């Protein structure tokens, strides 16, 4: 598994380095990456691999392959290869095709990492990499504002959900005492934090798989090139949320009463709402996009139950959906490529011009609807039967209603793209198109053949599906083409008939009324506008050009965060010593007096002198504690700093500004006191929280035998931390050079007038 990830990284870099020489053939090189996962899968790989990375924080590169991972890897790799070959025909010679290929290879590697990661933090890492790759691919046509907006929308929605998911995963891991996904599922944790953690994880899964109310980003992502839509947004990336829910549901669905109503409810609402919206779209890709969201809701409802039969059906639907939806997107891309438009109001009888593409579309759409003897029929019958036996009639009827919508938008896609059937305000402009090259339709044809063969002979894929379901705790279930005349078959027939009626006699008034309802995308847009306004307002306050305001915001941020934690975790050391002798006490008192003087003096030069007195006082404390070398360093630094301050003060007003507003003066005083209290409390808390032995003992022990010196500090500076010392010397050298430059520059300048009278006098002298 690590080798496969390495191959993806190498291929991505190779495409970036050599792509300009290869032209569009770089896509063929990119196909080697997903192909490597298929080759690796065929070799019977080791089920687990691990590389220790950051064990102290539970971050190890733990990878694990089981039956469910095998199915997902087969989809990522198999459809990935077909998409790269399809893209080779889809794109002409384009200047930025190198970047596109590298992005697509990077996505394939990230998605592979998601489905094999066994460490929760590694899973999150690959999860976010898929979002970044999706952002780059959706916005590939970045000269278009629509593409940039859609890419940003997808990134914001999925990454915000991902951040929520990260918080949930950390909470689950802390409750379970392990960051291993298999360990977490093997012993599900309990406790007050588990339920909120699961809600956060589900939030991430819903955003990734475009579930209601986060469904709006996926149709917007259709501005991406069609190969991206066929790969990321139908077969792989959008399955990541479903993949995670399918992993968690068998372990947690039965432990929390709210799980099944929430997950299945969101899935069913997504299926019906997006299916309805697909029935009146006029863009071929938008019809498929809304249909994809609808089908994702269907699968989410199945796997979210966490019950054996429904889990088996959900896994089978993952396979069937990836196959027929990738084929449909590829056909939509072929139509757009050859006809120059995807608008069904402008397309005519393209079935005669491109019969092979039309045949593929018919097969894939029929599988999506659930017509026998296709794979979609086999999996849909299994799904309805599982819902009827494990979820009851309400869920079954809701899914059957969603299936009516599936039939309606499938017919709309076929009739609008390949026939002259009149829909809406249709004005046919393109009635003929170039017949696509054989290689262009090869990928969709292969997927259509898989749909047919796997439907007629479901045993060919039954082992793959059963193995995937078995990894999720679903044993003893198998795919079959015919289960006899039963309720699921009756429901399927009713859904097909109802879908035909809905397509043939669309309720225009209902569609127009639904179009006027508030949409999630409008809420998103309003939220972005409000966020920008708040950001502008906050920026105008905290970034107003005032140095005291800048410093106050920084200090307040540094105080508030640690201060809240300290109020809960603070404890004094067991042995708290204020001062070891009177000299220490007197010196500390003088340092405090100098600090108070710094805050109260009116002249800038006086403040610098008081501040230097604080530094010299600390140096005296070093001498008292027996560290003369540290004291010498402190004095040198204070002296150098004092000189620099004096040079700078020459160009500043003599006195500090007079603060007339008492509230502003009080706020500075309060912030200063809080800063001092927090810093002191943090120092005490850190000393009281020490668990491991300090390093000073090791330095004392190893100084003579390993450093050859009796002076421990010297050995530390010259041997143990020589690079740090070199860095400090470099800093001092740069500071000295800067100081010298300031002095020389000051000498070369003429005297600058300090007030208006001197300036007037100079002008008068010049006039004379």
From the structure above, extract its key features.
mainly alpha, single chain, two-stranded antiparallel sheet, 768 residues, Four Helix Bundle (Hemerythrin (Met), subunit A)
What is the radius of gyration?
34 Å
Q: Pick out the low-confidence regions.
A: 756-768
Strand order of the largest sheet: 1-2
Mean pLDDT: 87
* Percent of residues in helices: over 70%
Largest sheet features:
2 strands, antiparallel
How many β-strand runs? 2
- Straight-line distance between termini: 88 Å
Structural class, by secondary structure, is mainly alpha
Query: Treating each run of at least 4 consecutive H or I residues as one helix, how many helices?
Result: 32
Number of domains: 3
Strand content: under 5%
Estimate the global geometry from the Cα principal axes: elongated
Describe the structure.
With 768 residues, the chain is an all-alpha fold. The protein folds into 3 domains: 2-506, no CATH class; 545-691, Up-down Bundle (Four Helix Bundle (Hemerythrin (Met), subunit A)), CATH 1.20.120; 697-768, no CATH class. Helix content is 73%, strand content 2%. It is built from 32 helices and 2 strands. It has helices spanning 2-22, 26-30, 32-42, 67-90, 97-116, 120-138, 145-176, 181-186, 194-208, 217-220, 226-231, 239-252, 259-278, 284-304, 308-339, 355-369, 375-390, 393-418, 438-456, 459-471, 487-504, 508-515, 520-542, 547-569, 582-600, 604-624, 628-649, 662-688, 696-707, 712-720, 722-748, 756-767, and strands at residues 48-54, 59-64. A two-stranded antiparallel sheet has the order 1-2. A hairpin with a 4-residue loop joins β1 and β2. The longest helix has 32 residues, at 145-176. The radius of gyration is 34 Å and the shape is elongated. The protein starts with a helix and ends with a helix.
């Amino acid at each position: 598994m690590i080798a496969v990830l390495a191959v993806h990284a190498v291929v991505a870099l190779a495409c970036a380095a050599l792509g300009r020489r290869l032209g569009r053939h770089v896509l063929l090189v990119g196909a080697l990456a997903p192909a490597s996962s298929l080759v690796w899968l065929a070799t019977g790989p080791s089920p687990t691999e691990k590389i220790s990375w950051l064990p102290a924080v539970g971050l190890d590169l733990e990878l694990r392959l089981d039956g469910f991972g095998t199915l997902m890897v087969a989809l990522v790799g198999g459809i990935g290869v077909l998409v790269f070959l399809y893209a080779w025909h889809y794109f002409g010679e384009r200047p930025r095709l190198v970047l596109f290929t590298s992005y697509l290879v990077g996505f394939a590697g990230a998605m592979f990492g998601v489905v094999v990661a066994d460490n929760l933090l590694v899973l999150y890492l690959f999860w976010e990499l898929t979002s970044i790759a999706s952002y780059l691919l959706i916005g590939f046509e970045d000269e278009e504002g629509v593409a940039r907006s859609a890419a940003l929308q997808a990134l914001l929605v999925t990454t915000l959900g991902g951040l929520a998911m990260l918080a949930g995963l950390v909470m689950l891991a802390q409750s379970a005492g392990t960051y291993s996904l298999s360990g977490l599922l093997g012993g599900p944790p309990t406790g007050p934090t588990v339920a909120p953690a699961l809600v956060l994880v589900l939030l991430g899964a819903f955003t990734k798989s475009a579930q209601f109310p986060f469904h709006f980003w996926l149709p917007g992502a259709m501005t991406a090139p069609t190969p991206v839509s066929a790969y990321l947004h139908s077969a792989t990336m959008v399955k990541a949320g479903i993949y995670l829910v399918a992993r968690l549901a068998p372990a947690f669905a039965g432990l929390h009463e709210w799980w099944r109503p929430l997950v299945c409810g969101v899935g069913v609402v997504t299926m019906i709402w997006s299916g309805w919206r697909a029935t009146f779209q006029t863009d071929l890709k938008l019809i498929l996009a809304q249909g994809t969201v609808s089908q994702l809701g269907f699968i989410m409802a199945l796997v979210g139950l966490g019950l054996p039969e429904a889990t088996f059906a959900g896994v089978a639907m993952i396979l069937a959906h990836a196959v027929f939806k990738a084929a449909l997107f590829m056909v939509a891309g072929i139509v757009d490529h050859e006809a120059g438009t995807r608008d069904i109001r402008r397309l005519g009888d393209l079935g005669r011009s491109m019969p092979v593409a039309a045949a593929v579309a018919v097969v894939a759409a029929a599988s999506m609807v659930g017509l026998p003897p296709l794979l979609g029929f086999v999996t849909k019958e299994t799904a309805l039967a599982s819902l009827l036996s494990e979820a009851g009639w309400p869920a079954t009827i809701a899914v059957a209603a969603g299936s009516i919508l599936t039939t309606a938008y499938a017919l709309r896609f076929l009739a609008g793209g390949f026939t002259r059937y009149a829909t809406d305000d249709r004005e046919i402009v393109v009635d003929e198109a170039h017949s696509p090259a054989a290689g262009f339709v090869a990928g969709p044809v292969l997927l259509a053949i898989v749909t047919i063969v796997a439907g007629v002979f479901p045993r060919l894929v039954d082992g793959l599906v059963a193995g995937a379901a078995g990894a999720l705790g679903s044993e003893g279930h198998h795919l079959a083409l015919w289960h006899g005349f039963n309720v699921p078959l009756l429901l399927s027939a009713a859904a097909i008939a109802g879908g035909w009626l809905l397509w043939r006699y669309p309720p225009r008034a209902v569609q127009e009324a639904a179009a006027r309802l508030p949409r999630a995308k409008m809420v998103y847009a309003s939220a972005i506008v409000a966020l920008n306004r708040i950001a502008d307002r906050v920026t105008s306050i905290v970034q107003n050009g005032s140095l005291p305001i800048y410093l106050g915001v920084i200090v307040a941020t540094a105080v508030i965060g640690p201060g809240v934690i300290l109020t809960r975790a603070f404890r004094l050391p067991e042995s708290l010593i204020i001062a070891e002798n009177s000299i220490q006490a007197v010196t500390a008192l003088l340092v405090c007096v100098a600090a108070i003087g710094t805050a109260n003096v009116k002249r800038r030069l006086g403040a610098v002198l008081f501040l230097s007195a604080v530094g010299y006082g600390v140096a005296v404390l070093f001498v008292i504690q027996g560290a003369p070398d540290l004291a010498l360093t402190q004095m040198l630094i204070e002296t150098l700093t004092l000189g620099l301050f004096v040079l700078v003060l020459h160009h500043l007003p003599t006195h500090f500004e007079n603060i007339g507003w008492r509230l502003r003066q009080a706020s500075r005083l309060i912030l200063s006191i809080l800063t001092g209290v927090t810093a002191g409390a943090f120092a005490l808390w850190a000393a009281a929280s020490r668990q491991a032995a300090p390093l000073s003992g090791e330095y004392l022990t190893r100084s003579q035998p390993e450093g050859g010196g009796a002076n421990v500090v010297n050995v530390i500076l010259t041997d143990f931390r020589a690079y740090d010392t070199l860095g400090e010397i470099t800093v001092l050298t740069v500071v000295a050079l800067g100081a010298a430059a300031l002095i020389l520059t000051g000498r070369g300048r003429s005297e600058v007038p300090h007030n208006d009278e001197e300036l007037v006098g100079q002008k008068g002298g010049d006039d004379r």
